[in-house]
Amino acid sequence: MAAEALAHQLDLPMYRIDLSQVVNKYIGETEKNLKRLFDTADISDTVLFFDEADALFGRRTEVKDAHDRYANLEISYLLERMERFQGLAILATNRQKDLDDAFLRRLRYIIEFPLPEERERRRLWQQVIPPQVDASQLDIAFLARQFPLAGGHIRSIIFNACLQTARSPTLPLPHSPSPALSMETVLIAVKREYDKLNRSVSQTQFGPYAPLLERLDHA
To answer: Domain ATPase AAA-type core, which positions (predicted)?
Structure first.
C-alpha cells in the first residue's frame, strides 16, 4: 500500500513485478526477463515494485553445483541492472535478513513498517472497503481489536470477502443497492489469510464467532 501511495504522490505509473513471470528454471531466461523489465521501465519512467523481494534478491550461496553457480550469476546480473537503473525501485519484504548484503548496501533508504496499532487498523478496515459495498453488518471495532494484521493483509481479506459475496450474494438490506458483507464471510477470509501466512488463529480471537472457526478447522 505504501508503494502505491508513493507512486500516486509522484504521479508515476507503478508496475508490480510478478516473480513467477520473471524467474525461469532455464539457464539465461531469468536474465532475459530482467533485461526486458528494466529496459521497459527505463523508457516508460515507471516505478518498479518488487513484492516479497527476498525471493529474487536473496543471499548468494556457496557454489556446490552448476545450479548454485547460475543462481549466483542471476543475482550478480540483477545487482548490475539495479545500479544502472535510473528510476525508482521499491523492494518489500518481511525477511530483510535474507536479502543479499550487496543489495542492502545499494539501497538508498530502508524503511521499517511496524504493525499498525488497533486504532490504525480500525481506520485501515474502514478505508479498504469499497464505497459501493454495504458493510453495515461488520463489527469493524472487533476486527481491528482481535486481528493484528498489516494493511496489505486487511485489504486482501476485504477483497476476497467481496469476491465471495459477489459469487453467492445474500439479499440486500432494505434501502441497500448491493449485497451486504457479512461478518461470517469476512471472518472466513481472515482465517484463509492467516493460513497463507502460516499463522494460527485462536478461538479466543474469534470470540463469539468461535463456532465458525471450529467449522472451518473441521471442513
So the answer is: 1-115
The Cα–Cα gap between 100 and 122 comes to 36
| pLDDT (0 to 100) of residue 65 | 43
Q: What local confidence, expressed as pLDDT, does residue 67 receive?
A: 46
Q: Give the separation between CA 59 and CA 20, rounded to whole angstroms.
A: 19
List the domain boundaries for the chain: 1-105, 118-214
Exposure of 83 in the CB half-sphere (CA atoms within 13 A): 11
φ, ψ of residue 63 to 5 degrees: the values are -75, 115
What's the pLDDT score for residue 31?
Answer: 78
Give yes or no for a contact between 133 and 162, defined as CB atoms under 8 angstroms apart.
yes
Element (H, E) at 50: strand 47-50
Cell 472457526 belongs to 213
Instruction: Just give the CATH number of 118-214.
Output: 1.10.8
Contact call for residues 151 and 132 (beta carbons, < 8 A): no
What is the pLDDT, as a whole number, of residue 1? Answer: 67
Inform me whether the pLDDT recorded for 54 exceeds 70.
yes
Tell how far CA 48 is from the center of its chain: 15
